[in-house]
Amino acid sequence: MDQAERPPLPEDAERDTGSPEPGKTEQEPLLGRFSRRAFLTQLGAAGVAATAGTLHAAASGAAEPPEEASEEAGAIPVTLLVNGQEYHLKLEPRVTLLDALRERLHLYGTKKGCDHGQCGACTVHVNGRRVNSCLSFAAMHQGDRITTIEGLAHHGELSVMQQAFVVNDGFQCGYCTPGQIMSATALMTEPIGPSDDDVRAAMSGNICRCGAYTNIVTAVQEARKASTRT
Question: What pLDDT, in 10s, does the model give residues 109-121?
């Protein structure tokens, strides 16, 4: 068969990317396959439609994020007695005592260190006993007496332990100091032996990355002696 007389093939449709000759209509896609022109035309139309839909949604406000709730979902009423003052809060049940003190009551003296109960920076007193506030839920302490570092001073006068830390330079960067002082204050009423090693063992849950342990032990021992004399 002469090449001029052969029937058109699908490959001819793919090669046909130019304008049709005058007086002829554009060839329809063959064998269910699109020409590149038809494909690009439909792709452009789809893109315009998608863009128009997005702009319309934005203009009508349908795509705006929902407003944040005024309070946390599932929040429960919690009453905390901190440093002698009663606070009425609404907290999600999983909020730790540490986060409640810092983020809700703005008592920033209690520090967040490891947040895993390993460094002691978050130590506070609950009913006179020292606890790691990062490991305790705030909702568990309704009715308890909670004391933070801000509650140790009375009428602007530092406690005996706070004064001993200042006099003996029991700190360097100061980040762990509130937890150190809270633990040291609590051990004054605990059955701790008299030696420096006894103090070190009792304070082992409080880590000082600066390494001020020698001065910390000296401060604790001085405060213990001062409290004994009084």
Answer: 999 999 999 999 9
